[in-house]
Specification:
By secondary structure, the protein is mainly alpha-helical. It has 13 helices and no strands. The longest helix is centred in the middle third of the chain and has 16 residues. This is 3-methyladenine DNA glycosylase AlkD.
Length: about 220
């Protein structure tokens, strides 16, 4: 089958698997899509397994403003043809937390240039681009990835700046990245806790809660 035939077949399966209750629930939680069939992730994985990874197919799926198409695109995109400039195009097209989290999980974390992209995106001023940078760091350190001293300093600077920003998803993603980094080793836990200690009694109650949560997640390692 050519790409058009596969897309048609996939859309038929999505319609047969649609879940209106799940779709409505996502809308109520702020996950806005032009089209959302509400298909659950296990079913999307089953659909993806029916097809070989295919660059043209994944690119076509990604361009559609359909929740399930974008999720499947991340599952079906081959790594070797997903060049850095394409990664930038994709990340600029991410506008909600679900697609950010799933694309980092299904695709971005496996890219050979993922560490470099994570720092590039963390430094971006756009909320979802920045959040993808932190989500990617969380994935990489969760797999045992290490940073040199310079990279570590930059990560901490960006993460703590995000914690004190007004961008909710940036703060949430930076929190996750700091927790994952602190959980990597006792030495990392000590570094994160030392930085947290310098930020005692912030005026913003939301920030204060985030700092306390990070501390609770990693202090057991000491």
């Amino acid at each position: 089958m050519d790409t058009k035939e596969i897309i048609k077949e996939i859309k038929t399966q999505l319609r047969l698997s649609m879940n209106g209750v799940a779709s409505q629930s996502m809308r109520e939680k702020g996950l806005a899509y032009k089209v959302n069939f509400g298909v659950e992730l296990p079913r999307l994985k089953e659909i993806a397994k029916q097809y070989d990874q295919n660059h043209d197919l994944a690119q076509t799926l990604w361009k559609e403003n359909v929740r399930e198409s974008k999720i499947l695109a991340g599952m079906l995109q081959p790594i070797d043809t997903f060049f850095p400039e394409i990664a930038d195009i994709w990340v600029e097209d991410i506008h909600n937390s679900e697609i950010a989290e799933l694309t980092c999980m299904n695709l971005f974390q496996y890219l050979p240039y993922a560490p470099a992209k994570s720092f590039q995106w963390m430094a971006d001023e756009r909320e979802y681009v920045q959040a993808c940078g932190f989500l990617l760091v969380a994935r990489l350190v969760g797999k045992g990835g290490e940073m040199n001293e310079r990279a570590e300093e930059e990560f901490f600077d960006q993460a703590f700046a995000a914690l004190f920003s007004s961008a909710y998803f940036s703060r949430k993603s930076a929190t996750l990245a700091l927790v994952k980094y602190g959980q990597q080793s006792k030495a990392h836990a000590e570094k994160v806790l030392q930085l947290l200690a310098k930020e005692e009694n912030p005026k913003d109650e939301n920030v204060k809660l985030l700092l306390e949560n990070i501390k609770l997640e990693i202090e057991y390692l000491l």
